[in-house]
Batch of 4 targets.
Target 1
Amino acid sequence: MDAVSSVYRLSLILSICSLPVMSHGSLLQLGTLVECWFVEEIGAKSSFPNSIAQDPALLLLRQVPYQNGEEQELPLDLGLASELKPGMFFDVRDYSRITAHPGFKQPQNPSKKPHCEINKYSPQESSVIWATHLTEDERTPAYHSSTWFCSHLQTFDHSFNVASVHRVTSGPRGADDTSPHQTSVVLNVFTRTPSLKTELKRDVLLDCGFAMDRKTGFAVEWRYQFKGSGHLVYAYNGAKDRVDMADEGTEMFFYELHSHGNASLLIRNVDMRHEGSYICTIYMPNLHAQQSIDLHVTEPPKLALNPDPLYLAPDQAHHVLCEISSYYPLDVSVSWMKRPVGNSTAEHITQSWMSGHRENPDGTFNVTSYISIKPTSGDHDTVYTCYVDHVSVGSAVRKSITLKVAGAAGPSIDDVIGLFICAFILCTTLKFFYWIFTVKVYPLVLNLTEEGKEKIN
């Protein structure tokens, strides 16, 4: 499949490059030209599942100023190459201007590839109770007389996703008709947070917005999925202004929802059970589109060195421990460095050991890494540093400790001053006791002795 996709992409690029200069320039003046894939299921033989076919396609995202304004028509001499099959060019008008996001314009040297996919779409009435009877007369309109498509686009920097439901506005076409499909976007559902990270015990906002080309009832649904399982998180019927389901600790903003199409979900006090994918689905009569948002919980590691302070006797073997605690997710990478006194560069310690991971009640993990040292007097003031790499931090976190070897260095000025103070206090104390003895105790003893002699005589 990868090889086939590469061939298709190459043919698409050749198709774009073969456009006449005048036509290509005219198209870019009308809007943004986006390379895309037209994806559809192919009927299966016997009991095998359907296969997927994808063909190169082009989307012209028109910069429509307003709904009733004058729109410039496409040039007649598009000159599309034969590699682009008939019906694979889409002239898209979006009066909400959501698809006019500047992130869809190709930068000069893109570091990432955009994602664009377009499929056939079949309007149908929703079966969930919070998305039924969204019109005032509780009847849903029939859309079967039109041709529909659904597109999914992602900007070059992967920071903005939009899913759009298109209604074809051009007339009937034959199988070999090379004219573009003229479409009008009926529903846009978008997110500015396709993937986001949060730490434990924080509040996090999952961004989801929508725009419709007409005033009608709508419904919002949030679902959670993780490792094959999932559940309903929030369900709201906008036509009835009714919340059908809301998980504890979740919140929506109804004024923003009705006035600006802000269907974002606030989750308070995030813990491990919140990690996973959240699907925001917007329903309007017979139509729906959705966005998936990946929420990752990350907790940075905390470091402690043991023993601290590090005092050892010469030739005394000892373990130095780096205790790494309260991190999530599981994987960490630990390394040790040492910098001897007088050296400007540190040396890598090749031999270290690590304990098994231990899980805490809140779902975070602990692990201990340690090294064994047997210092000599020349290792005095060597600095040992533990480095920890983890997905939650941009660069490695570290913790350092300085080794002190007993008897490896003479007394410092602080030691000398301390000894002097101790000697002064000791001398003063001895003089005080000597004075007490000579002035008070000795005369008293002498008098008692003299009095004893007189009594004997």
Target 2
Amino acid sequence: MKIPYGISNFRSLITEGYLYVDKTPFIATLEEQGKYNILLRPRRFGKTLFLSTLRSYYDILCKDEFESLFGHLVIGQRPTPLKNSYQILAFDFSGIETSSEEDIRRGFNRRVETALKKFLRRYGYPLETDRIIEKQTSPADKIDYFFTVLEEANIYLLIDEYDHFANAILGESLELFSAIVGKGGFVRAFYEVIKTATMEGIVDRLLITGVTSITLDSMTSGFNIGKNLSFAQELNQAMGFTAQETEAMVQPLVEVCGLDKQEMMQNLANWYNGYRFSSRAAEKVFNPDMVLYFLDSFNKEGCLWPEQMLDDNIASDYGKIMRLFGIGDRESNFQILEELLVNGEIVGRHKGKLDLDTHKPFERDDFISLLLYMGFITISGTMLGQLRYVVPNYVIQKLYYGYFRAEIEQRAQIRVEKHTLENAVAELALHDNITPLLEEIRKVLTLFSNRDFMRMDEKHIKTVILTLLYQSEVYFIRSEAEVNKRYPDILLLERKPIAVRYQFLFELKFSKKKEGDKGLEAKRAEGIAQIRAYQELADIRRLPKLQSYLLLTDGTEIEAIAV
């Protein structure tokens, strides 16, 4: 297989023999939804490739290539009447410099002008039109003149990463965001012209992709024609890989390397699966970029798993978008994230509109909806008209705990040394020596005892311990994972390709200082009894090299009792 990691050009994938997971059935589904659509997905989720596929399918100049590009795909067997019937106008707003309003304006203006010129040259319009567009000073004026020239055209407009630059601004300055997107802003003026073009029939169809709806929502009446299909059941699997699609991709590795397919799929699911974009969707999907990274990084000659399961490019992209955690009340947002990690889920209502250009406060449900758009949570079920949300997979958990580490350092004015924690976990993994880890936990808890920003109870102390453990790459960390209908606090499990001498089960018990020695002894007895009950479970007995510890703490001191 030729793995198309980092390649998002449909024509290249097909003509150069790369692996392509057929998402063309969703072309017809999208047509059925209406003319002016918005489809939002988290970073690196296949949006650009999907738009590239649409471009080749609908472009009138690709008519002669239809059979070679699509003949072997589902849409090629059952094409819609609209195939190869449009001139395609495509914008990509990623990578715009956001240092200042002038930089944003200049970058946006350049992207618009470049796309309009490419269109005019591709479809044979006079060069004079190019020169007149160049003379227009604003993006709105450029596209307005463009539509005047093309008033008889039939256009499918594709906009990729429409909010990429806007999200970067939002993480730094709400005022600057409002200035360019709100009333009188050049971005809003640009979309107002597009709205007019749809009313006049020049733009017959439109698809916008990005991460969140905030930018479009904040333009209010400036652009209110788009239908947001991001959480439509019919399009839940339009981007991302199903379990069946992922299994088909790993099958050659399974056969060549003699791997256990079930074990491999379970590991991949733990790391990369878990996304459900509709509460009515029956199946979750894998992040496609993460799966392709795995396939591309897998050592085929030695049959070795990637040394890093988390792609640095993904970590970087998601790290940048984490700046949006600061929208609204940062402290309230932190408490929501803390609740998510402490309880394993949060419950809320999805907000259909995230408009920052109003006087309404950015509240709990707004932030939860934002997390859903960004892929930091996913829908797990419903409860009395509300939605249940969980962290989708281990990659996102690692990103959260990296964020929590930074927050802990800032709030408690302490320094959490990553390399010291890595060494402490290495001592645990290789020598069953828990003392260095206890010292690091004790250090943080002691400093916490002099701060009042964090409640000291068992669940919150567990969050601190998990935050420290997640700084190491050694173990696959499971928090309150269901094991034969029981829920151990923390499991540290061997993860490929890293080999360890020991796996661990930790049960945490907290006794308030005012409860004294009697309280500690009661918690000690309770914790030991729980661990011994876990040790009798079939799935726990099957874990090789397992060591069990009771972690007993009063919020400052902590000891480990081997069971």
Target 3
Amino acid sequence: MARNMSHYDQSYRDFKWELPPTFNFGTDVVDRYAREADGPALIWANAAGEEIRLSYSDISQLTDRFASVLTQRGIRRGDRVLIMLPRIPDWQIAMVGCLKIGAIPIPSVEMLTRKDINYRVRHADVRAVVARAEHVEKFADVMNDVAVKLSLGIAPGFESYENAMINADGVFEPAVLSLDEPAVLYYTSGSTGEPKGVLHPTRSLFAWREAARHWLDLDRNDVIWCTADVGWSKAGTSILFGPWSAGACTFFYDGPFDPAQRLALLAKYQVSVYCAPGTELFRVVDEDLSRYDLSQLRHTVSAGERLNACVAEKWRKKTGVPVMEAYGQTETLMTLANFACVATREGSMGLPMPGSDVDIIDAQGRRLPWGSEGDIAIRVPNPLLMLGYLKDEARTQESYVDGDDGRWFITGDIGARDADGYFFYSGRRDDVINSAGYRIGPTEVENALLSHPGVLECAVIGAPHEERGEIVKAFVVLRPGMAPKDQLVSDLQDHVKHMTAPYKYPRAIEFVDALPKTQTGKIQRSALRALEKKRLTLEEQPIHGTAN
């Protein structure tokens, strides 16, 4: 039940970061719970009905074994390890095993293409990889660049992960890590060029416990199910680092999305905290929820994309549980949130996380009065913030501005704040597309389309969509002699799926005679976005073929 604003105000004023001098998530969280207060840490299930249950002591022993596997093969503190696994317990084991020796895991989705992997391995100077056997062919171009290659299953050129774990002795030297030492590396799409490598320090892994406490509202009695894919930072906050810092149990499901199955699993495993993107709730809430025993569900949260207000209200009416949205980024993690202790405000992104000074500022870093639109920014220092973009000091520095009362990290999002401190989202400063929680850089999609022999020019934007928030839409100018047929739409979509991660393909394609450009010849994506918004307002349909 929502309490009054004064409860939040008091909590916000009283909060003080209490950071330890050193921190290792593997030894200071997992091993400590295993030693002092053992209990359930992970429940895993898959679509075939298989199930695994692991305690903190189980996780402690298994991660010791993986840490020794890496150590015995020459992986050391600071080395980068690409982990490309699905939602299986070996993902947590590999992630935490890396952290124990101070190696830097790079969690990655299995949808990555050969080109995606080539870039990550070479950009991050990856020393070890862990992947399933059916995906190792994607590493063919970088086999000689990687010292240690482990595969789940038998694969040429890779050592068996299973055999390595069986033969491991669990002996290694745990790393004592300073708070600013690199800990985990996430890749996220930018508006131009290749994905950005977002490097987080150990203090971030420590600080994520506050999101688990204040937003997820977790304690040792909870079972939390966050359905995010393991390659995204959301998995860090709500599957691994957040829940285990609170001593909670994570439910982990490896299977296709089915809205009725989601509800059945919530009931079967007595999930008490459910974390899902708006796109998922959009589908799940239309099921007959009365068929399922959701009596243990006490808290629902959503992040990664804006949640439709009608969906949130329908969920509250059917379950009696409101949806608490939060806003964050790969670079900053949870920044603003709606909290169970405070009344929510329709359309709001929420209030700042305790310990974070968030405000609306102008280009000179000055705080703007309430009601004014400007940059959503976070005052530094803040332990939730990244160290920076890997090998891109210029881009890192461009993300900060010095103001009258300190230095600010600019999120890249535009918004406003009301008189009570609630934040409201207006849009992005750049062209990054947020579709169903996936951040997609338009340049990646444009480059893929331009490699098709029929495409002369193209521009990619995020087009408004009721269910997914935005979809990737491409405006395409064809080469002379090419006809804008429906089959060509499918061909272009398939081409993009083969050139980059499949989730980035354009769900809508519009053929045009020309693209809007500046006097210097630069394509104006902003003009195309404005066109789409106008069409949505007028309920017009695109003038050429589209496909979903």
Target 4
Amino acid sequence: MARGAPSPADVQVIRELVTQGVVVTASQLESWRRAGLLPRHRRRGLGRGRGSVVDAVDPVVMESAAALARHLRQGRDRRLAVLEWFAEAGMPVRPGAAKVPEPPVAAVRQALVWVLERSVSQRLVELARGAAGAGERGQDALYAVAGRVLGSYRGAAHPAVVRAALEAGEEVPVEAEGQDFRSVVHLVAAIGLGAEEVGADALAEAFAAFGLFGLTVEDWAQMLGAAERGEGPPVDWGLLQQQADLVGAIQRAGEEKLVRARTVMIGLRGFYGLYVLHGLLMPDTPAQAALRQRIDDLGIFPLLDHVTPISPSPRQLAELLAVCLEPLYDNLYEALMEQLTEDSAIFRLPGDETGVVGFGEAWLQAVRELPTSRRAVDGDDGPGGRSA
């Protein structure tokens, strides 16, 4: 074989990937190996002094190269591709295909840390910690920056409200949207300044913004105030510091824990998606209703809404994965999986023997029968809008 020419095994990999619609070059394969992302082909020794030979292409090499090629493109950082690869590992990318192998854990951890260190969340945490010794000017700067970042986000309208509006041909009322996140700035401040400096009333506003367990500002203020006065169970504010350290959590997590966090992340995203799709007229079934009821009983829909994008970018994926290392999310996932095990007929309408096909047809029919909104009938596109 000529110097610099691809090995016969690499030629076979390249040819096989072409049949899958994936184009790679020999130089790319070698570059990925040098970066520690792609294993070398397994070789068999021929005996003393006779060298070694590759008997067959290793499927792990083939599928790893395919994963990298799917997610890498000109000018894109490899670490983002590694995160997307990690997100799909353990599952086939198409029916009948081999499962996607796990990327090297060292590369995954490096990519996660790289993204998290540059995230808005990490910058806010660093700003909060820097404000601790910067006096009033530093505190004012922290509140100004965090307020701008957090104030731009509002929770989504509850799916039940969205569904009712669609079925009635109405617009979703503006007041149905979740409250804005501006008050969460108090939690950010507590990371740097300390909970005592921020105060129980401000922190009550921050916790209430998450909508957890249906607790109001008054509920949180009562509990935190009692703890502050020594009249109730103490609050371990060290947990707030620990949970803010997403980079440290990733660095401490072993491979098994990272894989488990991915399982929790994907599972919660699926449960959240089902809840949201109920608002978009997806046919209801007893299994779906039971899952929604379990989520409502736990009071966690607002939490899922805040942390679970349906189709996360690699950067969102890194933050969500770090969050899912926490026992709270693992326990929520287990509770919902328990409910799913009790009744798994998510996409089967009672009395309909056609199964998923009938479910899909019912969904399409519901969309076709959707009444025209009154705004469209009246020719009013809202303030500043244009009528047809």
